Amino acid sequence: MKRHILTLGASALALASCGPQSAPVLTTPTRNSISTNSPLTTTSGVIAVSYGRTLRFVDLDGSQVSTYYLPQDAERVAAGGREVFFLQDGHVRSVDSSGNVSSHGDIANGKRVSGFVVSPDGTQWVWGTQEPKADGSITSRTFIAGTSGKRTLLLEETSDEPVVITPTLWSPRGSS
Whole-angstrom Cα distance, residue 174 to residue 171? Predict the structure, then answer.
């Protein structure tokens, strides 16, 4: 089985003002050689390189498989398994190199999302929410969910300081 590499450039984190205004589109394959700077190894066998709102799926030999344009309101891009995940209006969505888009439910429930991390196999994700209170405090919660649909509260903290809990990575022992 081929190993896959996913690279999401820093521009993937600055999605708010870049890219086409049209709906998500998968284009036909073309041949194009590219180099990547900081690949993340996944299990899919395809490299996904992000340029603003554009995801280019590329085989390890440099041949381009497809291109996918993230929706204008997409945010929090992450990789897992054979897919690239993103949040759109609080909903988790994923796209594979064939252009198949899947919806995995609403994780925000009207709250502000802080952090979004996907497990290496793409079956689970961890995120944080922030809820400002009338007294000026902030309640941060960290949840885990996945393809099973079950949502579990992992951690809850209320602070008078402007501090929030933000999941940042998935380690071999789980998320942190």
Answer: 5
Q: Which whole number is the average pLDDT over 132-148?
A: 91
**Of 58, 87, 106, which residue constitutes the final position of a domain?**
106
Task: Give the per-residue pLDDT at 44.
Answer: 55
Residue showing tokens 């990547």: 36
Comparing CA positions, the residue from 17, 80, 24 lying closest to residue 55 is 24
Q: So what's the pLDDT on residue 94?
A: 93
Same domain, 148 and 134: yes
Beta bridge partners of 94: 85, 102
Answer whether residue 41 shows pLDDT above 60.
Answer: no
Q: Domain total for the chain?
A: 2
Output 119 or 2, whichever has higher pLDDT.
Answer: 119
Residues 57 and 115 in one domain: no
How far apart (Å, rounded) are the C-alpha atoms in residues 137 and 84?
34
- Name 170's bridge partners: 175
The range of the structural domain enclosing residue 155 comes to: 109-176
